[in-house]
Amino acid sequence: MTVSSGGLEARGLVREFTTKDGSVRRAVDDVTLVVRPGELVSVLGPNGAGKTTTVKMLTGLLLPTAGQVLIDGHDVVRDRRRAALACGFSLGGDTGLYPRLTAAQNLEFFGLMYGLRGSRLARRTRELLDEVDLGDRSGDLVGSFSRGMKQRLHLARALLHEPSVLILDEPSAGLDPQSAATMRALVARLTGEGRSILLTTHDMREAEELSRRIVLMKDGRVHVESTAGELRLNAANRLGHVVNAVFSAAEAPEGVQDCPGVLRVERDGSAVTLRVTDGAAAVQWLLAAFPGQTTSVAVTPPTLEEVFLDMVAAS
After folding, report:
1. Which pLDDT value is given to residue 315?
2. Are residues 134 and 44 in the same domain?
3. What is the number of domains present in the chain?
4. Is residue 233 domain-resident?
C-alpha cells in the first residue's frame, strides 16, 4: 500500500519541569524535527539528552511548555483525536500492553479503540501477528512473552490502524540478531510505503542502515542534523581517517609508523590499520614507500559510533 501524509512537524519544542526545590529545569530546549512522507529520521543521544521527553510530546503523552507538533497536519494538542488516528507509536517495554490478555486479545482491544470492528479487525490482527512473527503465539498470554516478543507486539499495535506517521522508540531493543534484522527489513518496507517514521535507537548500525537523516541530541537540544555519511566525513577532520592496508609479506614492513599525519598504528600480521589526519595522502605515501608490496588499501571515515562518542565527550 502507498500512504500519503503531511508527515511529522515539531517546531520549537520546549518542556520545563519544576524540581522538588522549586527551581525550573528545561529538559527539552527549542527542538525542531521534520519527517517527510517516505522518510525515516533517527534520533540519537546519550541518556538524559531529552529524547524520551521529546517523543512523549510528539505522541501527545506530554504537553509541551512551548512549541507545536503537527501529525499529518493535525495539532497534537488542539486536535488530539485526528492526530492520534494519523500516528502509531511504539514505546516498548511493559507499558501499553496487558499481560493477562493474549497477543490477539491485546490487538483486538486496541483495534476497537481505533474504530476497527468485526472481520476487518480479525483480519488485521492475524496479518500483523504473522508480520511480526507472532502468529503461532497469538493465543498466549503476553505476560509470558520475552522482552523481544513484546517489542514485536508493540510494533504490531502501532500499525493496527495503518497510520501515516510512526514513532518508534528503540524497536529492536531486546531482539536477537535475526529478529532485529527482520524488524529492520519491516521498518524499511514501511518507509518505502510512504510513511513518515521517527526512530530512536542506540544501535548505530540500525540508524545508518535505515535513516535518511540522523539527529544527534545533547543536553535537551539538537546538536547536529545530517546524513550518516556527512556526519562521518565531517568528524574525520577531528578524529582522522582510518587506512586499512594489507601487504604481500607475512608481516607488514617496518616503517609504516612513519606515515605522515599518523595518529595511531595497529599491526596484525600482514595487515596494518592506521589512523591518520589525511587519508588520501597516507595512501599515496604507502604506495610510494612500499612499491609492489601493498596488495590492498582502503580509506574510511570514522564510524557513526565514534561520531556519537565524540559528541558526548565534547563540552
Report:
1. 57
2. yes
3. 2
4. no
